[in-house]
Amino acid sequence: MSDQQLQNLIKMINQISINNLHHGDEDKAADVVATHIRKFWARSMKQQIIDYAESDGIELSAVSRLAVKRLAEPQEA
Amino acid sequence: MLQYFDPGKSGLNPDIDYGTPPSSSETLVSVSIDGTDISVPEGTSVLRAAALAGITIPKLCASDNLEAFGSCRMCAVEIEGRRGYPASCTTPVAEGMAVTTQNGKLAKLRRNIMELYISDHPLDCLTCPANGNCELQDVAGAVGLREVRYGFEGENHLDAEVDDSNPYFSFDPSKCIVCSRCVRACEEVQGTFALTIEGRGFESKVSAGQSEPFMDSECVSCGACVQACPTSTLMEKSVIDAGQPEHSVVTTCAYCGVGCSFKAEMKGDQLVRMVPYKGGDANHGHSCVKGRFAFGYATHKDRIREPMIRDSINEPWRTVSWDEAIGFAAKRLKDTQAKYGRESIGGITSSRCTNEETYLVQKLIRAAFGNNNTDTCARVCHSPTGFGLKTTIGESAGTQTFDSVMKADTIVVIGANPTDAHPVFGSQMRRRLRQGAKLIVIDPRRIDLLKTPHGSEGIHLPLRPGTNVAMVNALAHVIVTEGLEDKAFIESRCEPDQYRAWRDFIVEERNSPEAMEAVTGVPAELVRKAARIYGEARNGAIYYGLGVTEHSQGSTMVMGIANLAMATGNLGREGVGVNPLRGQNNVQGSCDMGSFPHELPGYQHVGDPNVRERFEGDWGVSIDPEPGLRIPNMFDAAIAGTFKAMYVQGEDIAQSDPNTQHVEAALTSLDCLIVQDIFLNETAKYAHVLLPGSTFLEKNGTFTNAERRINRVRKVMAPVAGMEDWEVTMALSNALGYPMHYQHPSEIMDEIARLTPTFTGVSYDKLDRLGSIQWPCNEEHPDGTPTMHVLDFPIGRGKFAVTEYVASEEKTNRKFPLLLTTGRILSQYNVGAQTRRTENSRWHEEDVLEIHPSDAELRGIHDGDWLGISSRVGRTVLRAKVSDRMLPGVVYTTFHHPGSGANVITTDSSDWATNCPEYKVTAVQVEKVTQPSEWQRHFQQFDQRQQELLTPAEAGTETSDATAIK
Fold this sequence. Notes:
The complex is a heterodimer of chains A (77) and B (966).
Chain A (H helix, E strand, L loop, with lengths): L2 H18 L5 H15 L2 H13 L6 H11 L5
Chain B lengths: L1 E2 L24 E6 L2 E6 L4 H7 L25 E2 L18 E3 L3 H16 L15 H9 L25 E3 L9 H10 L4 E4 L6 E4 L15 H5 L5 E3 H6 L4 E6 L8 E7 L2 E7 L12 H5 L14 E2 L8 E2 L2 H19 L4 E5 L5 H15 L4 E3 L6 H11 L16 E5 L3 H4 L1 H12 L3 E5 L16 E3 L6 H14 L5 H7 L2 H11 L6 H8 L3 H13 L3 E5 L1 H4 L4 H14 L10 E3 L6 H6 L6 E2 L3 E2 L3 H11 L11 H10 L4 E5 L3 H4 L3 H9 L3 E6 L11 E4 L8 E4 L4 E5 L11 H11 L9 H11 L8 H7 L1 E3 L43 E6 L24 E4 L1 H6 L7 E5 L4 E8 L7 E5 L7 H4 L16 E7 L5 H21 L7 H4 L1
Parallel strand pairs in B: 1-3, 2-5, 15-16, 15-24, 17-18, 17-20, 18-19, 20-21, 24-25, 25-26, 30-34, 31-33
Antiparallel strand pairs in B: 2-3, 4-5, 6-9, 7-8, 10-11, 11-12, 13-14, 13-26, 22-23, 27-28, 28-29, 30-35, 32-33, 32-35
Helix pairs in contact in B: 8-25, 9-25, 9-26, 10-19, 13-16, 13-17, 13-19, 16-17, 22-24
């Protein structure tokens, strides 16, 4: 993984977060963001952002961080 | 009695000219013509009624795409109980009317008229280009003209000078009979009003502009006049050169998303001319300068005629057999996967190729590559449309037919420039505007639609680039707070919870036009006025283009547009709707065919096990349940070293995608790049395998236009390298060990129909029978669906979406004080690979930078100066054009020429939901310079080097194994 690639992923998820944050409801926004990423991101991209969140995660917005946490949880069928 | 209920097309022969346009009346009137009884709609002309009854009345100035004019008097008839000989074109039928079309008196009258015409017409029929296809000649024959008693020595126009200025047609006024068909076609069909009849009486003559040569006038070279001309006065130069064609094939234009039907008129396998086909439901016999004239690229010397390979991009190309090229490509793909893993390769489907070809490429990727790394150029244009419309109204497509605009009372055009980018539909819009429909344009630029001759005055909301969502929220705020909502529609058709959430949001004061004025720069009162006009319209229709989608909030804006339409009940009938205007010919189709990494054909998500099961059953492989990489993710992964090989069919990502230097870095990182294209495009310069593509003239298939209309593409000549594009994909798949055995694209369509719920009723047989089909076409809608969402949405109820305005991160500052926005021009198409290789370049030889006079003055810039344009990612140099079409602070350019480097400046900034690049907003600085940018100098060197590497290969032997490999 290159720095640039990670930077882009961070930028993308933060952008998704800010576009779905409505009246500060971070919990709800995180749900939407996690669903969006599950639906549209490739496996490798998901893994990279999860790895980043677990190792550092400093550049993730609050909503993004919450969303990645949900991604990392095993999904119910 | 013959019964005709006419305004439809059923039963009418598109090859017959019925003389005058149909009447839309539902009241039928019975008349007798030469003893044949026929009943036709009230308002039908006697000329048309006769034609419907199979009776031909001679005519010269009449044509069924023009209002009756009554000038040639050739169509005179006798009507029982009426005096004289009325012109049948201007005489409407009346109940019980008895018409005689042929008798001695009428014959004499017509012969006398013809005699007068011919007394001032050259008698060079044998050497005339119209010989064999001349209405004047035909009518002279029909009326039995045998002598011209006046002689030819009198005053005449026989020495009138020919105007050859237009590259595609010549104007020879010596042959003109002043029937005004060209003038009327320019007005009524095209809507440009470039032609007039100048002078009176004997001095009358057709004149372009202010008596200028055609090229210097405002003529847009659509060719409607050429088609309308009953003589050889306006004649295609290709016909002058080649003679009359001997057969024709109906096919579909491969330029923009309008999808015009054409008759390709042929002489053997030589295409002589393209004539727009009246039976085409998208264009009704009209066309633009690209579709009608710019087809010469198909036989251009630059065509790639043989497969080629090389080990590295610094080596010369080697011409090889198809077998060797395909084998080489397959081995490299397999080796790459063996070394770097299954997900290390991917491909890009083409929005220019057919549905069948696109379907096959994504199938190759999912089945033979074993991953979902497929994407298409729609990523960079209309992916937000897919996301936004699917989320709100449940289907990733426009809701209407083009013809629907003729019932719209208010037309809203957002971020689109139809008269340049979708010219034939632009002409139809102008027709509706001339009939009095109101126009609202939301665009940083003052587009030409606002200058529609004889159109009603439009409202222009010249917003700052990047503030669309603020604007759409302000419009919705007015609709809701001023009680303009369609409560009944909302209650019966939309999800109540989501509606309430949206409503609570939109009524907040921060969304009012007054609050948003500081953001959009548009006076609140003007916004309120526009909102009222849309909200109060009986039928309000929204059309939008890439000025909506290519933003960091492209998807949000699409949802905002859907909200607006739902709130006002402008969905589910003719005259309304939400209509994305698609850029390339088959953008709709490439999206429908499963080009995106997350969805299989028919927008079915790969994560859905039921969907996968059906495809897996049919394809005999297992499909990865996780989405693959999108184009920008592929580039990032390539630079990171995890994505190593790519198959690109008919796209030029190196020129069309943003941040060129980033794209170049990605392409250079690949171990294997396979490009299939008709030319050595910019991407191919980085390729290791170059497979010759075929043009739309060289293959069978279908395109789907912006109104979901599936049109047939029919082969009129053999592919230059022996293989149609779908056959190449098939060969590659077979070489990779995943067998594909289609004999004809119709079999691919049968497979698509089997697996795609919206296509179940589509087949080549049905397409041949109906002419075209608008999907969904299934058991419920066996003949297709012209208007969508009539009773409900595919997701049941419509879903309002909260559309919070978030400013783009691409902001101006002291270093980059201007905003660059990009767009298109009429004569050029997309990356220009086709149009630059035609005479269309005469209209647009280079991309220029349009800059507002006040910004120009500040920098001492004059027309024609060289300007350096820098952004955060790159720098290029273009010539200046001072223009007040944009707001101060906004500059504009096009991306039709690769050396311009428009995309060297555009950034990686993209739509939050789909990664569609934000082409429309780039902060830049502009200054006068004296030499090309560093990138341009590098580009020139690289281009020259790659052309040199191609030259020895081109001299190679011909490939003859195409038949064997199929």
